[in-house]
Amino acid sequence: xxxxxxxxxxxxxxxxxxxxxxxxxxxxxxxxxxxxxxxxxxxxxxxxxxxxxxxxxxxxxxxxxxxxxxxxxxxxxxxxxxxxxxxxxxxxxxxxxxxxxxxxxxxxxxxxxxxxxxxxxxxxxxxxxxxxxxxxxxxxxxxxxxxxxxxxxxxxxxx
Length: 159
What we know:
Strand 4 and strand 5 (about 100-110) form a beta hairpin. It contains six helices and five strands. The longest helix has 15 residues, at about 115-130. It has helices at about 10-15, 30-35, 50-55, 115-130, 135-140, 145-159; strands at about 20, 60-65, 70-75, 85-95, 100-110. Helix 5 (about 135-140) packs antiparallel against helix 6. It has a single domain (about 10-159), classed as Mannitol-specific EII, Chain A (3-Layer(aba) Sandwich). It is α/β, with parallel strands linked by helices. The mean pLDDT is about 90. The protein has a five-stranded mixed β-sheet with strand order 1-4-5-3-2, with helices on both faces.
């Protein structure tokens, strides 16, 4: 008999203390570091250095049809025992030098090795949300971490 379980949602893994509104940074590395640092003391991480190094090693960046970019930095590792997430929004954007893309939303996700399907669903939801004009405007227009969280969760439920 297969065990049934509820899929993990953004509301399950993201809290306002892990959201930064109005991020300003001069470089890709500094921006990613600021977002990852929001998770440094999170109890869901078992090895901060391994998690941090994995996040800094690479990140996927995409742009939507309106020119705004989203960067999703993730690591699947034993350094994480429960899925963890941090988000930063930058209405003015941060130029990621190597790609030439101006990034307006940075998402950092740590994933335990066993949660691949939940992780893929969340990544897909984030990409779909940010690719729409409504989603982009909602996320970039949020003025507090709580407001950004509420908007993100509401948009996730609509897809």
